[in-house]
Amino acid sequence: MSPVRVLLADDQTLVRAAFAMLVESAKDMQVVGQAGTGREAVALARSERADLVVMDIRMPDLDGIEATRLIAADEDLAGVRVLVLTTYDTDEHIVEALRAGASGFLVKDTRPAELLDAIRTVAAGDSLLSPGPTARLIARFLRSPAATPATGGPDCLSDREREVLTLVGRGLNNTEIGEVLGLSPLTAKTHVSRIMGKLGARDRAQLVIVAYESGMVTPGNMSG
Questions:
Q1: What is the Cα 153 distance to its own chain's centre?
Q2: pTM for this structure?
């Protein structure tokens, strides 16, 4: 298999250098570019055909949220995934980044092995969401009067699909969903894919937001 082509976007040179050394140490991935601003990140994503962008939120010229939105909206970059990095897991901008098209987030003090695993997870087409921080972030975001649905609502879903969406909103992966509902992981994955198609969601990250916005999972109640 070809190595995962990784683009690193962070305004701190030393941080980028440290991440670059880490990524290059993995045999299944390579660094294809480094950006110090969001605008540079978008340009390099286009020119270097990166598979995944590790994106800092706070950057000059164009922040990571707007850069993520531009990448997600570009049809020529349809296969490019974005993994957002933040200093704290309570950063209120994380949900905005997920709505903009990011496939997950990590805090910057995560362990090196976890960052590499996260890159593999997101590059493979999955979303990286931590249920606890995700619940807190979305709860805060939904208290804002400016919150608007990111995709279509769940009314078009079957009862089983609504059950699956609720579990996705709680942060469960396909194997865990299958265990709860008595399904195989493959069947659970199929349900998730159909739900994304019906709702027009880019990935599981947006499904989590839909689950919260529709009240299927409520802030402070991870059991739905």
A1: 20
A2: 0.71
